[in-house]
Write a structure and sequence with these properties.
The protein has 922 residues and is α+β, with helices and mostly antiparallel strands. Helix content is 33%, strand content 17%. It is globular, with a radius of gyration of 27 Å.
């Protein structure tokens, strides 16, 4: 068995909002943090959802396994209790949603009611013998329901329950966040790449981590003090379980397999957790899901390529067309025409520091490689990690469908929403219910950060999030002086700060990778870590990256604390206020029995007038964030009123699409075709008809989850071009018929029947999978030129089909169709067809705009695609044999521990998902 954790990177913060002066138009109360109410004991809990709240989180709640259980799983496939009992219901929805009824929702989702019926209690424990908290686990799913009579006891119980369910995973994550994964879990190349990826962006010392703990306590009033008290109690609970499981010898078996414990003598230790470990954990989660921005140097390189191809004026126009900063055809979450300008293109940019052509070099991270760290495989893993971190932002996932009560049968709002966090074993998230003084919530939390429910429901409201991706990361060009390790800061030659981390590993039972070692080294400036070097106008510079959450990885604990507080959240306004204290770049959604609401969170820095967030700027005071303090990395942030927000819109959809008019996202691809359209089209139709129910909204989500975006929104026009004349080649004519039939059938990637492991329209799906990359290249490369085409593909990958392992989420990850050239193809082909296009590409690329020439390109590339065998299109991997289309698409729970699970049919859907419809309110 080898613990390969590197697939986690394929997914890819926390902070109190400091506001600039300005009148707020919504009651967000972010200038002063509301103090905690004085509550001595947990209040009586009333569930206002009346059995109409549901949730699901595969594969199962139990993410810990003893050595014996791991051996049995590896040898015979047996599962520990509740390790896999949510995988089947989750995996069966694609085949069952069309016949869904209100009474069968429970076949695919858990009952998410508060509390546990006496007949459903599997166990009750008093962790570490405490009398102020109990952990009840239900028979159905083994979910912990933590009830405390004191705040300390409640949080102690939450930590104890987290360790019971996710101790090994929590340990993995704290080592990832500290850049120390390989000594802990093994030197597999994927592990090397993973620790390098995260440590490059957050190269913290222990003092840095402690400073972030201190900041929370010292800058957030009574809530900050309570947050630290809660975290301290939580850590105490985690450590109490470590001690109990160690002495009782029921700790996770991975500790034995990785050499930390001896299975015979029990020698060895499991290190206790400390508060700074939570900051390291938060840094990982924030980087994966909640930090929008980056890629400014890549943007500069593609702009220079465009200018080299077309000249400065036309090249800039071409670049802007493909960037689609504010595309008028983009699907919007806030669709009533509201404008929230942020990171827009300035009329006259200032301070730009574009590199001299051919001078950009990546800053090395890894030095002094020995043993298995010096292999080609290890070097490839390092290159992939660097590319992931340094390229244009490709973060996202998660979706939401929220409908106002004015459009539902019951008159109450309905929401189907959740985070799309990939699929792992054990899962990154865990389910829990926490009831105690000032806390009442059930839902999902990231393992090791579960002192509060992060996405879930309270007594009479529910909330969830999707990644928004607005730009909170900037790149600065620091001018070098004296040597390569000094730079000018406000006119003074200043030494860079060198931070190092040396890792070594030896083979273990879990990971047989040969012994090896290396040293990671990062140079830090006041403007953040150095990531590239170049010259600008002949001057030597280092390009740094500064994000608003740097040195503030855990500040969002305040916002989550508020969301869990039933005495704080009681309305859309108080929900928005709570969300405004979260510095992750997220879209937050809310529903109660009468209202829906939306708020976009994140510490959006106020940039100097004229600075273009898309490109690097000079590290000079004139171009710094407004009132930026380099010691604390605090600046002015856009006020809550400037963040996209809304109450009671007729419906909201989000699948990481554009948030609102004029609100720029850091990642490319927010154009005329986006996977958000799959939700927009379905929910808009439901709302227009009225009478929306939980069943109908689940069906809309599920139908979108098995639909190929290209087939639904791009392929019809491609076929329209081809059909302008009769297709005389019999092979191509058959292919066109097959593709047409698939479009008519809905463009689904769906089994012929449950468990058949064979797609309906399988040949058409294979043809499009093979055709898409061929047609994109043939359509655009001749007009753009190879250099610019290559540069643009670095900004935005051309495809993210389910089996496209080259996409940012990797193979077997479920999430698909977020990043790709579908909007470019759509706009270009519509232009060729003479259709109306808003926000076009400026030029027409397919056949230079000549219909017959474009048709010839499509037919030629289609001919090549048709000739490709299934084995060529789906070449196979460590799970699937070559040519197995269903398996190539299928979802795998990537092992982060010793327990393995079966793969399930593909669906593009949140990992944790709620279905809620509250019937009344406090």
């Amino acid at each position: 068995m080898r613990l390969r954790l590197g697939k986690l990177r394929k997914l890819r913060k926390l902070r109190t909002v400091r506001l600039i002066t300005g009148a707020a138009v919504i009651a967000l109360g972010a200038t002063v943090i509301a103090p905690l109410p004085q509550v001595a004991n947990a209040a009586t809990v009333t569930d206002y959802c009346q059995s109409q709240c549901s949730d699901i989180l595969p594969p199962g709640e139990n993410g810990n396994a003893t050595l014996a259980q791991i051996i049995l799983n590896q040898a015979f496939g047996s599962q520990p209790d509740h390790a896999e009992d949510q995988l089947g219901p989750y995996g069966n929805l694609p085949s069952g949603y069309s016949g869904l009824t209100a009474s069968t929702i429970s076949s695919f989702f858990n009952d998410a009611s508060l509390g546990v019926a006496s007949s459903n209690i599997a166990s009750t424990e008093a962790p570490a013998g405490r009398t102020d908290v109990s952990i009840v686990r239900d028979k159905t799913r083994g979910i912990p329901h933590i009830t405390g009579t004191t705040r300390y006891g409640t949080e102690f119980g939450a930590g104890y329950a987290a360790a019971e369910d996710r101790l090994w995973l929590m340990d993995v994550f704290r080592h990832v966040g500290r850049g120390q994964l390989t000594p802990f879990a093994g030197g597999a190349a994927s592990n090397q790449g993973l620790e390098q990826e995260f440590w490059r962006n957050a190269p913290y010392t222990e003092a840095d981590l402690q400073a972030q703990v201190d900041y929370i306590q010292n800058n957030n009033g009574t809530r900050g003090t309570q947050a630290l008290a809660d975290a301290t109690a939580y850590i105490a609970g985690v450590n109490a379980y470590i001690d109990a499981s160690d002495s009782g010898r029921y700790f996770p078996g991975e500790y034995v397999l990785t050499g930390h414990k001896d299975s015979v003598t029990n020698a060895g230790t499991i290190d206790h957790f400390k508060l700074t470990d939570l900051v390291a954990l938060a840094a990982v989660i924030g980087a994966l899901f909640g930090s929008g921005g980056g890629g400014e140097v890549n943007n500069a390189l593609s702009l220079l390529a465009a200018q080299a191809q077309y000249g400065v004026t036309q090249g800039t126009a071409v670049w802007e067309a493909f960037r689609e900063r504010n595309d008028p055809e983009a699907a919007l979450t806030l669709h009533n025409g509201e404008s929230f300008p942020y990171a827009t293109k300035p009329a006259t940019p200032v301070g730009e520091a574009l590199p001299d052509t051919g001078t950009v070099t990546e800053e090395p991270l890894v030095y002094d490689r020995t043993g298995s760290a010096a292999t080609a495989t290890a070097s490839t893993a390092s290159a992939t990690a660097a590319s992931t971190v340094l390229s244009s932002a490709k973060r996202g996932m998660s979706n939401a469908l929220v409908v106002s009560g004015t459009k539902t049968t019951s008159g109450h709002p309905i929401a189907v929403f959740g985070p799309q966090t990939g699929y792992f074993a054990p899962q990154l998230l865990m389910l829990q219910e926490i009831e105690g003084p000032g806390i009442s919530a059930r839902g999902a939390s990231f393992a090791g950060l579960s002192m509060y429910v992060e996405l879930g429901r309270g007594q009479d409201y529910a909330w969830s999030a999707t990644t928004s991706g607005q730009d909170v990361i900037d790149s600065y060009a620091v001018e070098l002086c004296t040597d390569d390790y000094h730079y000018l800061y406000h006119g003074t030659c200043t030494a860079m700060d060198k931070v190092e981390q040396t890792n070594s590993w030896v083979p273990t039972t879990a990971d047989g990778t040969a012994a090896g070692s290396y040293r990671m080294q990062v140079y830090r400036t006041k403007y953040g870590p150095v990531e590239y070097r170049a010259t600008v106008g002949g001057k030597k510079v280092a390009y740094t990256t500064l994000r608003s959450s740097y040195m503030h990885e855990a500040d969002s604990i305040i916002g989550f604390q508020m969301l869990n507080d039933p005495d704080y959240v009681s309305s859309p306004a108080t929900f928005q206020s709570a969300a405004s204290h979260i510095n992750y770049t997220f879209n937050w959604f809310y529903a109660d029995s009468s209202h829906t609401a939306y708020y976009n969170s994140g510490n959006n820095p106020v940039r100097a007038s004229g600075v273009d967030a898309e490109f690097p700027v000079w590290a000079q005071s004139a171009y710094e964030w407004t009132n930026w303090n380099p010691t604390t990395n605090v600046s002015d942030y856009t006020p809550a009123s400037a963040h996209p927000h809304s109450v009671d819109q007729d419906y909201y959809i989000s699948w990481n699409n554009k948030v609102a008019k004029d609100y720029a996202a850091a990642s490319w691809g927010d154009g005329s075709v986006h996977r958000g359209d799959l939700l927009e089209d379905r929910v808009k139709t439901l709302v227009a008809a009225g009478g929306v129910t939980r069943v109908k909204l689940i069906q809309a989500m599920a139908d979108a989850s098995v639909t190929d975006l290209r087939a639904e929104d791009v392929l019809p026009n491609l076929l329209k071009v081809i059909k302008t004349s009769t297709v005389t080649d019999s092979t191509l004519a058959t292919a066109v018929t097959q593709l047409t039939d698939w479009v008519t059938a809905g463009g689904k990637r769906k089994e012929t029947s449950s468990g058949s492991k064979t797609y309906a329209n399988a040949t058409a799906i294979r043809i499009l999978d093979a055709w898409w990359p061929l047609l994109v290249e043939a359509e655009f490369e001749p007009g753009l030129g190879s250099d610019l085409y290559t540069a643009f593909t670095a900004n935005l990958s051309i495809d993210e089909a389910p089996s496209a392992a080259h996409g940012p989420t990797g193979a077997h990850a479920g999430s698909s169709f977020q990043y790709g050239w579908w909007s470019y193809v759509d706009k270009d082909i519509r232009t060729v067809l003479g259709q109306s296009v808003s926000g076009g590409l400026g030029s027409t690329y397919c056949g230079s705009g000549v219909l017959t020439a474009c048709r010839s390109i499509l037919l030629s590339t289609l001919s090549t695609a048709v000739a490709k065998t299934a084995a060529q299109v789906y070449p196979g991997d460590d799970l699937c044999s070559a040519g197995d289309q269903w398996c190539a698409d299928s979802i795998v729970q990537r092992t982060l521990g010793g327990i393995k699970h079966y793969n399930i049919t593909w669906q593009n859907r949140p990992t944790y998902q709620q279905v809620v419809e509250f019937t009344s309110h406090r």
